[in-house]
Each structure stands twice: as structure tokens, then as C-alpha cells.
Amino acid sequence: MTIGSPHERRTRETKMEENMLGRRVALGATAGLMTAALIRPREARASKAVNVVLESEVTILDPHFITAAITRTFGLHIFDMLYAMDSKGAIQPQMVQAHQVSSDRLRWDFRLREGLKWHDGTPVTATDCVASLTRWMPRDALGRALRNAHERIEARDTRSFTIHLKEPFPLMLQVLGKPNAPLPVMMPEKLARIPGDQRITEPLGSGPFRFRADLWRPGSLMVLERNPDYVPRREAPDFLAGGKDVKIDQLLLRVMPDQATGATALMAGEIDYQQYLPFDLLARLERARGVKLMSFGGVEQFQGNFRLNHAAPPFDDPAIRKVLWKLVDQNAVLTAIGVPPQHRAPQCPSFWMCGAPLTTDVGAAGAGLDIEAAKAELRATSYRGQPVIILEVGGSISQTAAMVLAHNMRQAGFTVDEQVMDWGTVLARRARRDNWSMFSVYSNGTDMLSPLTHFYVASTCADFPGWSCDNAVPPMLQAFARAEDDASRKRIAAELQEAMYRLTPNVMWGQFSIPAGYRTTLKNMIESAYPMFWQVEKT
Hints:
alpha+beta; five-stranded mixed β-sheet
């Protein structure tokens, strides 16, 4: 979702504007002292070290374990994948040198590149890859689709392995090179033998950076250093594909109190990059000397969602859930958050993102803000005033989105109980089937642009927080995975969206981007919503 903190990023609340502005004045006055203290450790003084502030602190180090975007960012630097997506959405070889497919399309043979090593110096083997895929597949919706289609995976020699299928699987490369979390990264067999529902805590990858556990200071600093044994591909870097030629010695992941402090540090030159910038400081950042902003469109934007709990009243009733489609005004939500017009999409009805290959408005007729129609529709349901418990992350933009919806819900006749907490508490609460009705969150567009990766569609009828289920959906997902061409996939995606508007596993609250910023002393930055530092130079 790409869940934000994991998927949540902090910014202001509309109704607390005066307090927040006052706080930022104080932060601006003290940020130099605070950030100077943050960057003084001796280990941070390596030559060619780049200081970055990401969306949140990295706390979970296992890319197979969780859908968190911050763990995905960590994983892309420490681990490597068999294939990777380029900037045009095409899947390219990464760890793989070449593959062959049998004439009946039931056997895929893969051969690894020469010179691949784990960070402890031992060679990457086909057996490692077999164990990694076996561990990852049950953890991921696309992985489960491959698991259902495959018969077995076997290593043939130290660099070659084969996937035998029960039936053709046209999405093989899209699955092995997916950019969505949980990532199909390769790890040594000794780690891949750890059950997938248990986290690995000592990450050992083969990627362009390696993790320095001895320098990790939780709450303050994480150090990734250049992997001297990494052999980049010869192709130019292209999004997640191509050669990952590291030109810096260390990547220093800093933890800041909030986005405003980070933005002040960026303008002062005390950090080199910040992944998410506060909207209300963008004008100042645009004028700041030595700072460049990045903005993103289409699938590199975010999709905001309200996730509904189908396991408990009142949203166990589909008729009550459907009322929400008439209570969300995406433009009003994004305006309340403070997203400038140039950083948002118009009202988007598509589950699969607007400006994306599967964009559609099928099923959306009747959606859109209409308080009076919502009142009438709610009166015709079984709703009798049961409280709607909304879990809100304090100080986040998703809280602002929830506050706007809560206002409209009260006008329509709902009883609303807004409960403010941190993201960790939301994660704990949402694991229960009771005592919550919905929460607000936003996710990377790359996670939501396909039915097979969309968190709330791909997980239908599965044990996933929210517990939405329509038994007609899993066969449609299987048909989508088997489809041989883009036209067929687009048709099935439209049918799935129509089913989702009836089921209402979630309601979209907007499509938008959060600009990133970096110092102009960084060269060769790939301008992407995915932070990538293997090609960066610092002058």
C-alpha cells in the first residue's frame, strides 16, 4: 500500500493548520541544530557518502515478508532479482543471462549470469534461486498464480534451473520481474529455508549495496555501502533494469522527526535527497538554491483508498458499503490535503489507476459526491446507527482524507467514531476482524495497476485484513493470468472492476504524486517515485 508508514507519509491536518504552522516555524528555527546532530556519527564521514531521508524508517528487512514500500526500497538495493522492469514497463533480464521456453510452453529453462556473489563472497547458485522462489510464491498474489500453474522447480546445475508448468503461464516474466512488494528477490538457500511467515533479520543479498548491521542505529541511521563484488549488467540503467553501477561509497538512510525538518535540512544542504516533501513547503523549495524537485505522473503516482472491513458491522452489509461511493469527492480530498493541481489526477474512477494500461470507468456509474442520494440510499439499508470506527494515523495526509469522508458520512446519517493512533497501532488493529470499520491509506500506482497486484482485489476471499470476498472473482483473476494478449486482459480487467464496484472492498479517495527533492550536487539521478541510488554521483 505500498502501505505508507510503511505506506503513510506525514504532513499536515487541515483542521490543525494553525498549530502545525506554528510548529513548523519552531522546527525551521531549530532544524539546523537537529540535523547537524543527526549527521555527526564518525561512520557517516566516508568519502562520497550520500545522505537521504526516505518515506519512513526501515524496520522490516525481509522483502518477501511484507507489502511495505520502504522494505521494497531497501530490498531493491540489498538484493537482486531474476528480471526487472524498465521505464517502458517491459521486463528485462537482471540476474538471468538467458532463458528458453519449450514449444508446448510448459518448460522454462533459466541460466544465471556469471560472477554473481552473495555479500559474504559465496557464489549465487541455481539452488538458492529455487529455494527463494519457493519461499516467495505463497507470500504474493502473482506468486500464488505461478505456484498454481507450476508443477515443480528444479536446479539442473550450479547456474541453471527449470520451472515445469502444468499449464502455459503467459505472465512468467512479468511475475519474476514484478516491481511490486513483496519482491521476488533472490537470497541464499540458508535464508530462503526460513518459513515465509517468519522474518529474516540478517539480510544477505547479492545486490549493488550491502547492509552494515554493525553501523545500524535504529531511530537514527542505517548504513548501506557499495558492494565491491557486484558485477553490473552492461546495459544502461533504465528504471529497475539495466546496469546498477554504484559510484558512491555509502548510502546513509537518515531518520527525521517529520517532513518539515527534512525539507529544511535539504535546503540547508545537510541531506542530499528527501523522498517525500511537504506540500505546504513546495513553493519555498522550488525557490531554494541548489535544490531540484521531481514530480511524477501516471503509474508513478499514488492511489489513495479507504479499506473497508467486511467481517464486522456495519460494512458486512454490501448495501451499506455501496453508499460510500456517493460520499467521496476526490478533488475535495486532495484540496484538503494540499495537493497542488499539477500534482494530482482528475477524479479517477479506475481501480487500475488513470493514465495506465488498464484504465477503465466500467461500473462507476452513480459514483461521485451526492449527499442527498446517499441519505436516501442509506435509509433503504439495514443500517441502524451502528458506529463506523475509522482508524486514523495522526498527522498524516490519509488522516485528512478520512476527516473529509467522516464529515460527509455524518451528513448522510452515519454515526462515525474517528480514532487517532500511529501506523503500528493501525497494523495491529486491522489484523482483528472486529473493533474497526475502515482505515485510510495510499499505495504506489505500480502496486495497483493490475488486478493481480491490487491489494484489495488480488486478496479477495483470502485471509487479508478487510476480508472481502466474491467467489466469482478468483476465477476471473485466473483468467486474467492466462490471457494471451493485452486486449483480453483489458476486457477481463473491466469485468473485474464492475464486480469490485458491487463488492466495494475499498473506495478510492484520489490519485496524486508527492514530489521528491535532491541537491544539485547529485548527478545522474533517475527521476522516479522509486528511490534508486546505484547510478548516482556526488560532486
